[in-house]
C-alpha cells in the first residue's frame, strides 16, 4: 500500500469517475484503474463497485476510505512540518475574513503573529458571501474565516470557528417595524431590502436571505447598510454584534418577517488541503484553533 494509491482512491471517490480522477491527477485512465486494482489486490478487499456508471464505495470500502482520508491528511501535515523545520518565515501571509464576523478576536491573534514574526507582512481583507472561499481556491488567501457555503470540502480543511446571529431589523418608524403581526413576503415586497454585494467574481455565487420579487438596494459593506437602515430608508439583516447597542437604545427594532427569522451563521476557519502551510500561517492557524 502506497501514499500514491491512497491519493488515487481519494480522487476517484471525490470526482465520481475514473476519467475525472485521471484528469485531476494528470494520469491516464488506465493507470488510475491499474493502481486501484493493485491496491485492492494487496489488501484483498474490493473497495469500489464497478457495476454502475459511477463507481461506488462498497461497505468495506467506506470503512477503509474513512481511515485513508485521515492518513492522507496526516501525511500532508507531516510534509508541512518537515518543510517548516528547514523553512524561513514567509514574506507575506494573506487572510480573508467574512464581513459578518467582528475583527477583535482575530486582531489578538494577528498581534501575536506580528510580535513573533515581525518580518512577515500580514494582508487582511474583509469579504462578503463567496469572496473568502473564492480567494482561498484561487490561491489568494492562506487562511479564511467564513461559512462553508460553496466550499469543495475535498479541497479544504475546515474547523468550526464561531457563530454569528443575523437579525432582520429596521428603524422603529419604518412601516414594517410598526406591524405587531408577522409581515408576509407579499407585504414586504413593497419595502426596500438593503443587501451587501458579493465580493466574489460571481463564479461561485451565493445568495442568502434575499426576499423574492422585492425592492432591493445593494451596498458594498455592512457599515453602509447599517447607516441606510438607521435612516429609515430600508430594512435588512445585520450581525447582532453590529447592532446590539442600537437595539438596546431603541434606534433599531427586530422585524418579524415571514420566512426570515434571526439566523445563526456558522463560521469555519479554512485552508487549502493541497497547499503547503508556512510557519507564520501555521502559527496563525494554531492560534485560531486554540481560540
UniProtKB/TrEMBL annotation:
Record carries keyword Zinc: no
Recorded family membership: Belongs to the LysR transcriptional regulatory family.
Residue ranges constituting the HTH lysR-type domain according to the UniProt record: 1-58
A Pfam family: LysR_substrate
Name assigned to this protein: LysR family transcriptional regulator
Taxonomic classification: Bacteria, Pseudomonadati, Pseudomonadota, Alphaproteobacteria, Rhodospirillales
Domain of life: Bacteria
Entry keyword annotation includes Lyase: no
Alphabetic keyword roster: DNA-binding, Transcription, Transcription regulation
Molecular function, one GO term: DNA-binding transcription factor activity
